[in-house]
């Protein structure tokens, strides 16, 4: 299962008119994406079994295994965190059984 956790995303160098960020003035640089830091508790209602959760690179390569637990009601729970790795934003997760 592929899970995406995407916060606000803009190309580096994007400019707006005023601080309310409602009037786009420039699209920024192609290829350099900035993601707003954020976390989310992901709860998945999955059949019983042993599951593993991996943080993925934007290209789909596994970067790290993420702790996941079963909640009292049987859901698989893990935390998605954009800043999990300070060197590279994390917004994709793989859940395997």
Summary keywords:
97 residues, elongated, mainly beta, single chain
Strand and helix layout:
Elements: E1 2-4, E2 9-11, E3 15-17, E4 23-26, E5 33-35, E6 39-44, E7 52-56, E8 62-66, E9 69-70, E10 76-81, E11 92-96
Antiparallel strand pairs: 1-11, 2-5, 3-4, 6-10, 7-8, 7-11, 9-10
Terminus-to-terminus distance:
9 Å
Number of helices: 0
Main sheet makeup: 4 strands, antiparallel
Low-confidence stretches: none
The count of β-strands is 11
What is the CA-atom radius of gyration, in angstroms? 16 Å
Percent range for β-strand residues: over 45%
Q: Report helical residue fraction.
A: under 10%
Q: What is the structural class?
A: mainly beta
Q: Strand order across the biggest sheet?
A: 1-11-7-8
SSE string, helices as H and strands as E: EEEEEEEEEEE
Give average pLDDT, whole number: 89
Rough shape?
elongated
Verbal overview:
The protein has strands at residues 2-4, 9-11, 15-17, 23-26, 33-35, 39-44, 52-56, 62-66, 69-70, 76-81, 92-96. By secondary structure, the protein is mainly β. The strands form 4 sheets. Strands 1-11-7-8 form a 4-stranded antiparallel β-sheet, with no helix packed on it. A 3-stranded antiparallel β-sheet has the order 6-10-9, with no helix packed on it.
